[in-house]
User: What shape does this take?
Amino acid sequence: MKKRIGPDGIHFFDRYTGLNILVDEVLPLENEWSQAPRQISIALTNVCDLHCDFCYAPKVKASLQLDQLKKWIKELDQLGTLGIGFGGGEPTLYPHFLKICEYTANETDLAVTFTTHGHRLTDTLLSHLKGNVHFIRISVDGVGTTYERFRGRKFSKLMERVERARNISSLGFNVVINDSTIQDLDQVTEIARKCDISEVLLLPQQATQNVKGLSKDSYEKIKKWIAGYSGETRLTISDIGLESNFICNPLSIETGLNAYAHIDALGFLKASSYSNIGQKIGDKSILDALQLLKECK
Ligand code: SF4
Assistant: This one.
C-alpha cells in the first residue's frame, strides 16, 4: 500500500483494490505532510472525436510531451501523490496513451485511472491496457435516447464496450447532471448495479459557450434524489456546484491544492480543470510550479 502523510492523519491506499485506510489517532505536523496534491488529473490532449455541448475541454489543439509527462509523474509519485487520472479531450486519442499508462503503472506506485467516452475501448486496446490501469471512468449521461442526444453515439454500442472493459479493470460511470440526465438516474444506477460498476460519479453540469450550468430546479432535484438513494453502487459527487451537508468527506482538512490539482494539455498546473489561473510547468519541478500557483491564489 502507498502511504501519504497529511493534516487528517496517515493515509494508506491500495491501488489494486481501491482500499483507503486513514490512521487519524495522531495528527502529523505540517512539516511532515506529503508535498504534492493527493490526486492529480492530467489532460493528455484536447483532441476528441465527439462534440458534446456540455464539454468544457479547451478547443485549442494541444497535447503533452511524453518525456516531460514522465518526469512530472515520477516527481508526483515521489512527493506522495496517490493517483493520476488521465483525461482530455479523449485520452485514448493521445498518441502515447498506452506508453504513459504502462510507464505509470510499472515505474511508479501511483494508481492509474482515466476518463473516456468509451467508444474507442476496442478489444485490442483493452488487451494492451490490462495490468496497466487500475480504474476506468466511462461517461454515461443518461440512457438510450438521452445519452444518444448528448454524445451522438449508440447507447447499445457503449454498453458493449462497458461489458468488455469490465474484464480488465474496475469501472466507474461519470454522469453529467442536467435537466435531462437527472430523469434517467435511477436507470443509470440500476445498470451500474447489474454491471458491477464500483462507483457512479455525479458531475453537476458547468456552464459552457453552448449550455447553462445546472438549473436551480435540477439542483433541488439532485439533492432530493441523493438523499433518497438506497442503491448498492457507491455514489460520489464533484464538489464543484453542489454544496450539501450530506456529502461525507473523511479528509476534511486536506483541501485545495493539497488535495487535488490539474495539469492541462498545454502543461499548465491549475487548481481544477475549470480554473482560468494556471502556472506553466515547463522545465520547472512540479513542486516549484505548485508553490508559484499557491502564491497566485
Ligand atoms: S467526449 Fe468528453 S472530451 Fe469529448 S467532446 Fe464529449 S465531453 Fe468533451
